[in-house]
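Example for tutorial group B:
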């Protein structure tokens, strides 16, 4: 049986400017910063000791995505099943403490992105999550949020996540997210959240297209949007409401050059009654694409 994965538990991001990320994530978006002794940092949005791990490095891209399973037996079952299907699965137990989990395995998708599956995430109820801006995030059984991965061979990626990892297809959007560039984006779920993963063949060099977190209040989205605007943060897409998961969101550009989606009001899917849908628009309204800012020109002779 497939379908061991229950939620997106955490992501690791390799970022070149930790200080800029701290300002962006904490002062603008309301996430909580927790320093680590090794110079990395955790971002928290709930009881989990870590949800977003920031590792200093030049890539400015996804380092790994961590997928949660129920227990030790399920993790063993997943590892065995993937190996039977020909996937190279690494026993990553030596890194379990670092990831703040009890049990850990690691494997790669067909495009080379690193994925981890784990059980037993550390909960820090003794040091409760406190947003520096009073923001509350929707997590629980729906996990951290969602990620969108770039792909060159989308059919191979769809097979991997659906047939091998047991993700369920929610819908497709066939549209021009960026004017003049038609594409089909496909949305996959592993719990009630409409999608924890989407696959998008977009012409960008990074593996991650965006990372989404969801707030408990529409006002938190509005407040964050104004704080980002005040800080001069570029919006890759303006405020809008997505056609498929109903998420009301905006897309501030992270200091690493990929997008963050900051949303509220996402659709919860009922597996029994859901059927696969198709859309020809990314959004019911809004989400207007904004060209990225040009880097400042260096004066000749300067
Ligand atoms: Fe999204």
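The residue assignment follows.
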């Amino acid at each position: 049986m497939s379908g061991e994965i229950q939620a997106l538990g955490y992501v690791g991001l390799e970022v070149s400017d930790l200080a800029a990320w701290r300002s962006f994530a904490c002062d603008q978006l309301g996430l909580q910063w927790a320093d680590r002794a090794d110079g990395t940092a955790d971002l928290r949005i709930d009881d989990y000791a870590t949800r977003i791990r920031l590792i200093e490095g030049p890539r400015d891209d996804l380092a790994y995505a961590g997928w949660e399973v129920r227990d030790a037996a399920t993790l063993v079952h997943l590892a065995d099943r993937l190996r039977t299907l020909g996937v190279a699965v690494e026993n990553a137990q030596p890194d379990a403490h670092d990831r703040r989990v009890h049990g850990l395995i690691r494997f790669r998708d067909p495009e080379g992105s690193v994925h981890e599956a784990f059980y037993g995430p550390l909960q820090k109820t003794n040091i409760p999550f406190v947003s520096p801006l009073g923001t509350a995030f929707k997590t629980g059984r729906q996990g951290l949020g969602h990620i969108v991965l770039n792909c060159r061979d989308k059919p191979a990626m769809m097979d991997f996540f659906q047939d091998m990892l047991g993700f369920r297809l929610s819908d497709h959007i066939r549209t021009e997210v960026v004017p003049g560039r038609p594409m089909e984006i496909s949305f996959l779920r592993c719990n009630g959240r409409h999608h924890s993963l989407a696959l998008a063949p977009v012409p960008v060099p990074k593996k991650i297209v965006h990372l989404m977190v969801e707030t408990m209040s529409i006002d938190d989205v509005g407040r964050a949007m104004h704080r980002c605007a005040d800080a001069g943060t570029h919006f890759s897409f303006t405020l809008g409401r997505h056609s498929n998961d109903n998420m009301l969101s905006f897309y501030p550009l992270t200091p690493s050059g990929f997008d963050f989606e900051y949303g509220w009001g996402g659709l919860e899917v009922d597996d029994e009654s859901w059927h696969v849908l198709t859309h020809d628009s990314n959004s019911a309204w809004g989400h207007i694409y904004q060209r990225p800012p040009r880097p400042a020109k260096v004066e000749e002779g300067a």
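The pocket of fe (ii) ion is lined by residues 146, 148, 210, 212, 261 (CB under 6 Å). Compare this with the pattern of hydrophobic and polar residues in the output above.
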